[in-house]
Amino acid sequence: MSSTATAKQQSGSGPVLDWAAGHGPVTGALSATTGAFAVATTGAATAMPPGWALAVGAAGALGHTIVGLRVRNAGRTLATRAASWLVGAGWTTWAMTHGPLTWAALGSLATIGVGIGAAARSSALYEEAREEEAIAAEQRQIARELSAERRAIAAEWVDRIQRVCGITVRVLGVEQWPTGAGFSIDAELPPGGATWSKIAGESPKLSADARLPHGCTATASPGIHQGRVIIDVTTVNVLEEERTYPSDYGPLSLLTGIPWGYRTNAEQILAYLREQCALIVGPAGSGKTNMLHTILAGFSRAEDGLTWVIDLNAGSAGLPWVLPALNGEIKREDGKPVRPGIDWLAGTYDEALTMLDTAVRVAKQRKMSYQDLLAKANTDLLPISPRIPQIMLVVDEGAEILASADRDMRKLAEKILEVIRIARAMGVRTVLTALGATGSVLGNLMIRREAKVRVALTGGETEGMDLGKMFPGTRGLRVEQAPYKGSGFMGTPESPAALFKAWRILPNQIREITAATSDRHPVLDDVSAKAAGPAYARRWDTERTAWMRDQVADDHTESSPSSSGQGLRLSALSGQQTEQVTPEDEILRQFRAQIDAQFGTAPDPYTPTADAPPANPSGLNLSALRGEQDSPAQREALALLLAAGREGTGASAIARALAEPHGTTRQTVVGWLKAWVTDGTAVRVGEGTKARYVHRQHAPEQPPEG
């Protein structure tokens, strides 16, 4: 039948006949009896020799018997089919001789049909039972083999735990991991007060006794109740190999968890951040920045979350998620512009303070405006959805900000803690990073209480990695277990602290995720957008993002000295002034002239004047290189230091003055000031938060030693 006819039959009324289907007991018997009746009637009318029908029946019985033997049918089935052919052929022969239209012929044919149907049904049931029994026997054989393997594993580990831990357990089950990287043992502890933690504390000894490969562990965790223990044994070190971020960029939700990496059993580990904050520590070179990009990738895929990023190190953590979209370097398949992968990026102190103030206002406004919604949902947690997205505030090196003694950093720290304290129910949560798991980082009670999702990237680094403080109450964690970049320990309220590794995310994947998730990002709800005001609405204005582009331009210029076609310039060594004076240089020259006129600064000894031509001192003149080495921002910072006079100034004040035109961070200014103190250009006055830097021309005279 054609597809059109089939469609018409399906759309019409009445049953649809499937002519390709096989016969069942009823249709088979009906087909056999009607066929025999038709042959007998035709043969009687045409005087066909009756022996032909008997010969055809015998051939059919023989053929079905041969086919049944090939497919290994049961003897009962073979006999039933052969008998059906022979009985039908016998009736046809008799009917052709005595006439098929008598009541005796018709009644006997009906009886034969019922018998054939019943016999076919019985043989079919027998074949099904026989097949099911064969499958069950095969499964029992596999189970016996698996059971033998599991019994061997159980006996081995019962003996090992007794030998190493002095505890006699009873193994209730052994489960092989689907990934093939190990197995789990479910054991019952003996009566008398034995606990799972005693086995967990002997994890290194158990691993050594089992001769596990490096990077593989035997870790214990609580079982279904306090008298049970689960022992996870890793036999394949999946942390040793580097795995890239999964290429599936499908939608995620903060309510169902965001994948941050994978455990030693190769299964993903999820971070549930609807109510929890997160803390990530890792020294330089441990893969912390890469994991931060992995986290931002998960947040970008979430349909019910918006990501705000604070990174005072020139915004480096968020720039790969922002610049390609702002510069139009990537496009969607439909040609529409791509939205940045994160919703807001702050790379300067002022922008960070603005972002935190906005987050506080949003949380407070949500508390007031969504009371009816909370009452209707009968909850004290704001229902997060694409319509009311959660705000994930990611602060790179935020733990250091909380521990800083600097006055400006303390303002940021107070705002961060306020967000953590007041915004849990209203859907604003934070992810903080730090360089180490030290007392100064973990000393804040708010962080210890709220940041229940914790990650310690070790990379084999032992300094500043106090895993006992990072994961209190967890035993058996050693830095040596995670010597690979991107590996470490991760613990959540749902999953105890254990080994894990973050995926390696490549720069091209960041661009792919940005493009793939551009139309997935929610927009800030009306209530929150009204509270955020112009500070949020104009976050991508040109003047607000100028520091991003200026920084990229400066980096390109420094990394490509020959981009202008001039190559390496040595005119400074010959005293020839061949450079073109830019408007910025002219403004800076006038600014210096005003300072010199007001404060009477000494002229450069190598600056030529009308009365005194440039001298030719003996030896190598390196002062000519000074203008080539110092950036305009650094020269302007030195001018600000000089203009501060005897009162001096601090790093934060200079950074604020240079943030708008140059995008200079406080950390950069601190480096300059330290260098100037070392070479004598500046003098540090005071200690701690009262420290000031004074130019040497205004510095108080130091009393002679001795």
Descriptive notes:
With 706 residues, the chain is α/β, with parallel strands linked by helices. It has 26 helices and 16 strands. The strands form three sheets. It has a ten-stranded mixed β-sheet with strand order 6-5-14-13-12-7-11-10-8-9. Strands 1-2-4-3 form a four-stranded antiparallel β-sheet. Strands 15-16 form a two-stranded antiparallel ribbon. Mean pLDDT is 78; it is low at 1-21, 553-581 and 599-629.
Please give a handful of descriptors for the protein shown.
706 residues, alpha/beta, Rossmann fold, 10-stranded mixed β-sheet, 4-stranded antiparallel β-sheet, 26 helices, elongated, disordered N terminus
